[in-house]
TrEMBL record:
Any one GO molecular-function label of the UniProt entry: methyltransferase activity
Chain intervals with Low complexity compositional bias: 38-55
InterPro entries: Methyltransf_25, SAM-dependent_MTases_sf
Name of the featured protein: Methyltransferase domain-containing protein
SUPFAM superfamilies, A to Z: S-adenosyl-L-methionine-dependent methyltransferases (SSF53335)
Feature: compositional bias, Pro residues: 75-85
Location of the Methyltransferase domain: 223-316
Biased composition (Polar residues): 394-406
Composition skew (Basic and acidic residues), residue ranges: 383-393
Length: 479
């Protein structure tokens, strides 16, 4: 009965007949498990597995369903909307023309980072003292330490802890003056004191080219104030010369943010050890720097002067104003403090007498028309000295107007001497965290030490010198 449905070996194989009935590619569909023949060439009729009629019927139905699916029209997807053209960046005006020789104020301000760099202001040399470690032999378990020994151990631990704290703070110092509002008030008062001592002017460099000594004689003037602090000089100059642009930079942001002239800009920037500034070449007409030696090492001075030469416009001017760190005195306490102050700055690789060599520093680095001057600031003793001079003069020989003028000058000198003494005393207070470590004094002992200095200043006629140097970049740039 099976032979009537299935062919024998001499007839056409069944799988060939099934392939004719199913017009599909062998790789499109897997063979159903109806009858699997061996793939070897030695296949015989005995290897053919019989299949029921129901399976064949299922195959035919599947074949018909596949044909209907293939004949069904596949829907065409709707056409995609064209993408909008990608906007091309606009061409800036400076790309269409050559870069100007002097950059604009906007590009100068954009060259300064908005955030403060983490680079320290200067290289710090560790101030270390010889420390002795107290080593005791191990005590027996049941032996109690005597009160004197316990006190000795406690005091030694406190002393070593204090030394470790002092060394930690010394390592963390990048600027030895305290940065608080008291220090900023001192800098503002110092600004007005220096202006009075230098003849009532805010600058000494002849920055104008027409001998008018005025910023208003030339347009597009850009001025840089390095180490501007609270910005007293910058804002005052911006108010006096509204047509010029003033830019102040400092490592701390104590300068005003909102209330300032619109032609005055402040940026926070720390000058690194290499002394580089973030400004393009030939950017400024005038560079002003004052009381910046506390933040600079000896090597940084030369690098910074070279940077001034680079960023100044040909024919631009630079003005440096610095003080002698060492006061002129013959009194014991003041001389001892001077020695420690010089020693501490030497450990920091700083030059305490750089103010005396500002003109030389400018000349050897390519500046021309170098000029220098200095003013002596008596520390609180001018009143007594003037009184002694007036005793030698006979007031009866003076006219009333001359006598009034003499009294006025006396009051001015007396007030300036008082302000100079107060200013220097506040400076020593601002140096207290660092200088007390150098002098090996506690905070209380340091305060008591400096309280007795004003009396020595009057007795020894102590004074300090402030130096000012101006120089010009050659009109034909060497770069």
């Amino acid at each position: 009965m099976l032979s009537s449905y299935y062919p024998m070996a001499d007839q056409e194989p069944f799988h060939a007949a099934v392939d004719k009935l199913m017009p599909m590619r062998p790789m499109d569909y897997a063979l159903p498990p109806l009858m699997m023949r061996s793939r070897s060439s030695s296949a015989t009729s005995s290897e053919v597995t019989p299949v029921s009629e129901e399976a064949i019927s299922n195959l035919r139905r599947n074949n018909s369903a596949e044909k209907s699916i293939r004949q069904r029209a596949v829907p065409t997807p709707p056409p995609r909307a064209p993408l909008p053209p990608t906007p091309r960046p606009s061409i800036m005006h400076h790309q269409l023309s050559c870069h100007p020789k002097s950059p604009s104020v906007g590009s100068i301000l954009a060259s300064i980072p908005n955030k403060r760099p983490t680079t320290p202001a200067s290289t710090i040399h560790d101030i270390r003292r010889p420390s002795s470690t107290l080593q005791l032999p191990p005590s027996p378990p049941n032996l109690r330490a005597s009160p004197s020994l316990r006190t000795m151990i406690s005091s030694a631990n406190l002393r070593m802890k204090r030394q470790r704290q002092q060394q930690h703070h010394a390592n963390a110092w990048g600027y030895i003056l305290e940065q608080n509002h008291t220090e900023q008030d001192r800098l503002v008062a110092q600004h007005y004191l220096l202006r009075m001592m230098f003849g009532g002017v805010d600058y000494n460099a002849p920055v104008s080219l027409d001998n008018s000594n005025s910023f208003g004689a030339k347009s597009n003037i850009v001025v840089l104030d390095v180490g501007c602090g609270p910005g007293a000089w910058t804002m005052e100059m911006a108010t006096s010369f509204p047509k010029a642009t003033f830019i102040g930079i400092d490592k701390d942001d104590f300068f005003p943010q909102d209330i300032k002239p619109k032609n005055c800009h402040f940026r926070q920037y720390t000058i690194g050890e290499d002394g580089t500034l973030p400004f393009p070449d030939n950017s400024f007409d005038f560079i002003y720097q004052r009381d910046f030696n506390w933040a600079l090492t000896t090597d940084m001075w030369t690098r910074l002067i070279n940077e001034y030469m680079r960023i100044l416009k040909p024919g631009g001017w630079v003005e440096l104003v610095e003080s002698d760190v060492e006061t002129k005195s013959s009194m014991r306490m003041e001389c001892a403090m001077n020695d420690k102050l010089l020693e501490g700055m030497a450990l920091r690789h700083q030059e305490p007498h750089i103010a005396r060599h500002l003109s030389t520093l400018l000349a050897v680095n390519g500046f021309r028309r170098v000029q220098s001057q200095f003013q002596s600031f008596p520390l609180g003793w001018d009143k007594e000295q003037q009184a002694e001079k007036e005793k030698q003069n006979d007031p009866s020989t003076l006219t009333p107007s001359e006598l009034a003028h003499q009294q006025k000058q006396k009051r001015i000198r007396s007030e300036l001497a008082r302000l100079a003494a107060s200013q220097y005393l506040f400076l020593l207070q601002s140096l207290r965290p660092w200088l007390s470590l150098v002098m090996n004094l506690s905070t209380d002992k340091y305060n008591n030490y400096i309280i007795g200095l004003p009396e020595e200043w009057r007795q020894g006629q102590t004074y300090t010198n402030w130096h000012c140097a101006t120089a010009q970049k050659p009109p034909i740039s060497r770069f």
